[in-house]
Amino acid sequence: MDILLSGFMILMRWDVIAALAVGSVGGVIIGAIPGVGPAVAIAILLPATFSLDPIVGLTVLLGIYGSSMYGGAIPAILINTPGTAVNALTTYDGYPMTMNGEAKRALSLAYSASFFGGIFSVVCLILLSPVLAVIAPMFGSREIFLAALLGIILVVTAHRGQVLAAGMMACFGIFINTIGLEPVKYSKRFTFDQSWLASGVDLIVVVLGLFAISQAFILLVDRDESPDAAPISGGLFQGFKELFQHKRVASVAASFGVMMGMIPGVGEFTAQFLSYTYAQKTSKKPSLFGKGSPEGLIASETANNAVPAAAMIPLLALGIPGEALTAMMLSVFYVHNVVPGPNLFESKMDFVIALYLALLILNVLVIIFLLFSTNMLLQIIRIPSRFLGVAILTLSFVGVYSLRNSPTDCAVAAGFGVLGFILKRLNLPIVPIILGMVLGHIMEIKLRTSMSRVKEPWDFIDRPVAFILFLIILLVLGLFVRTAWKDYKARRENQQG
Q1: 431-470 pLDDT per residue, tens
Q2: 188: helix, coil or strand?
Q3: Is the pLDDT of residue 35 over 80?
Q4: How far apart are CA 343 and CA 362, in angstroms?
Q5: Which tens digits make up the pLDDT trace of 369-416?
Q6: DSSP string, 50-118
Q7: Which residues, in sequence order, are CB contacts of 195 under 8 Å at separation 6+?
Q8: Any alpha helices (H) in 212-340, and if so which ranges?
Q9: What are the φ and ψ backbone dihedral angles of 189, each rounded to 5 degrees?
Q10: DSSP classification of residue 189
């Protein structure tokens, strides 16, 4: 109880409350603008958060991360254009409901489902805290290395149909992390006698280039668009009543979101797919799915909003990010010398509780904001895409330059921006590069630390947790090979038939 009170007191500072309000409302606005998304916004804001208190900076980023999907549902439902990538499935049933004259009902359902998913996952996170506090100290260097390796494997294998490309991008990210002074003996690696490479390639520079600058290039190159949507009349409260009528679908979807959020590299898309498939197979009206089914809309929106809080579990307990946004947040921890992992639950449990409460409060703030300001957000949807491109490009370079006042960083960010633009045009994954950099850094340090205690290969997995993680890695690889073999046989049979 004392820890809970202490966490609440941390959250009640005026600057933390202001950060929570700005992050939650700002996240909704960012999510409602097609073509921007939370990754771009967080990448731009990262340099600014380094000068803030860690709880303030993380609260802003958490607000954007946790609320952007609320806003992303608005253009997905009204103009068939998802505000964020994870709202793509919302268009399947949201937009047909709008075409059927039920736009208000669709928005109300989306808001209610998102709120339920968000609150459900935070409650699960709070209930799991005692378990995490017990399990986290069991992870030493070997266990964290194996967990990070498992994270990279899951990230790669999650890209069905693009596994080779995802693997190459992850390896590229690991390679980028090796440039500069190595962390133990401080010898130079891959610097080619270039002094500007001695300090390595900064993660934030890469993030801003791959996500923000590349997206600005896309918005500038593509046809200028200024989408329009009809205003909504009437209240949006009835969705909570209808959500209760589909409580089974909402509960299962939220559970899928929590489970998928805890697994590195899986995330919203898998949670949505499983939830949507379950809802369709158990529905009394499966023919309505894709044509305006409220169950389909509830399944997709509940699942994607249940993921953010659950994704904080591997980040806080092990210091292992599950996807790009939590990888960006990890850099804020490191800048302020707050190291996520086993020691965090022992030394700064009040800080962890404050983050949990922030996630809980932001969902309440967002739903109140949306219920009264949806028509105002419709004006934001109309912002021309090329104007957004110029704004993002300007803010990105300002953010990069503010890191170290280095024009070289701006040039490197521009280079990664071009790379990100090419990868997006070719529909190749970008996220594995960032996770390769972050997890590769963790793996190198933990491997070199643990090898001093390892005399034989078996010594590396001679502890229970390490052995379990090793078995999970073998299981994941085995299932992947089995699935790939079955797909190969199916393709050969189709070709022969």
Answers
A1: 788 888 888 888 888 888 887 777 777 778 888 888 888 8
A2: strand
A3: no
A4: 27
A5: 887 777 777 777 777 778 878 888 888 888 888 777 888 888 999 999
A6: TTS-HHHHHHHHHHHHHHHHHHHHHHHHHSS--SSGGGTTHHHHHHHHHHTT-HHHHHHHHHHHHHHHH
A7: none
A8: 214-221, 239-245, 247-262, 267-282, 294-318, 324-335
A9: -130, 130
A10: E
